[in-house]
Amino acid sequence: MIFYGSPGTGKTHIAIGLGIKACLAGYRVFFTTVPLLTSELKEVRGASTLRLFELRFEKYNLVIANELGYISFDKEGSELLFANLSLRAGRKSTIITTSLSFERWDEIFCWSCNLL
User: Fold this and answer.
1) pTM for the model
2) Rg (the chain; Cα; Å)
């Protein structure tokens, strides 16, 4: 699920509310910001513990990734973020909040596109 809108429209508030509701129903929920998640992925990759992080990340019933596009990151961060969010596709629930229009997501996930 993607919550898109201008800053201050309640995207994060709604995502947190859904996360709390899921917790109360007994689901495992992980809330993070996209910049923090990307930094953590890069750190665990450097420490050779990426697979352990991925196994833990996959166990959450719901991941809320807040503020996609708020801060830009490098190619490595982009690839790690995309790979880990893709692992959840069709299997587990993910909420992403962003103020960045979908047409601009290639700025985050398509580094080779920007080189053309």
Assistant:
1) 0.86
2) 14
What averages of pLDDT result for each successive group of 10 residues across the chain (116 residues)? 95 98 98 95 92 93 93 84 89 94 74 48
Q: Which two tokens stand for residue 45?
A: 């990759």
Q: What is the Cα–Cα distance from 107 to 109, expressed in whole angstroms?
A: 6
Q: For domain 2-115, which CATH number applies: 3.30.930.10, 3.40.50.1000, 3.40.50.300, 3.40.640.10?
A: 3.40.50.300
The rounded distance, in Å, linking the Cα atoms of 81 and 102 is: 16
